[in-house]
Amino acid sequence: MTTIGTLPIIRMVEPNMRGLNLKKSAFIISALILALSFTGARAAKYAGDFMYLGAGGRPLALGGAYAAYGGDVLAGYYNPAGLSFVERSQSVFMHSETFGSLLNHDFLAYTRPIGNENNRAAFAVSLYRLGGGGILVTRVDQTGRFRVIREDNHADYVGYISYGRLFGSSLSAGITAKLIYRDIVDESAIGLGIDIGAIYDLARWAKVGINLQDIPSTLISYTTGMKQRVNPTAKIGFALTGSKGKFEGSLLADMDTRFEGRDYASQISAGPVSFDSHFGVEVVYWEKLSARVGSDVGNLTLGAGLRFDRFTIDIAMRDHSDLDNTFLVSMIMRM
Fold this sequence. Notes:
Strand order of the largest sheet: 3-4-5-6-7-8-9-12-13-15-16-17-18-19
Structural class: mainly beta
Shape: globular
Radius of gyration: 21 Å
């Protein structure tokens, strides 16, 4: 019998939209959210958490509040509808030693605008990796004691293909298909999922966004023969922006709505429905230097950014009440 640490390896798995007005959009979104509460009822709790630590120095410094923001390569991860605002091809690289070097967290992505001013759209491809080592694989010897036979690694990979398009002058919509691969010691798993997002301009300075992740649910199949379903999540966000002189400011807020009865594991819980918040404030000087502060599910986030003509460097720090702080750096290159 092979075991990890002191536990045996068990066979387990973790219409044409042009012309839609705000009222119709709100109705569709409400119907989808209502449907999520039923489709996710039998899915496994916490099954998709490894995919949602975030990506990019700027969003993470803003507490992960990015569902209503668009215009850069990171939109493929946070809300594919935001890709419709991309004006130049971009790529991004991020590396983080998460929770005090417990995990290595990496993200790569590329986006390219397509279409024209009357038909604005963009696609993106992204790769997300979360992995680490230190897993002690043990075996029971003849005396009945556990003996360490080797130390092994684990890694999760998620590949994204995203598309976003502007419909009319106010509504953007997008879709992301994702392929999941999990490598856990002697076992592995693959999965497929879909995210659908939308962003609506309430005014020149205000936007609302929604990203419906893992709908109707994401299926992950393990080599053990067992299967796991990732519950849907509805991320609803707001973005307020303004400027005065050489200063620009943004106020962002997101709310994650889940349907798996997380109880005390979430900030707010009401039976099977739970809510987690993300907030961020950014001040930009002369379109070059940025300062950011936020709250990621109640944990403090801080960061800064320096923009040049062809690239931007962002750094971020995420506090955690139970684990060590996370520091990360990312770079976006414009082509």
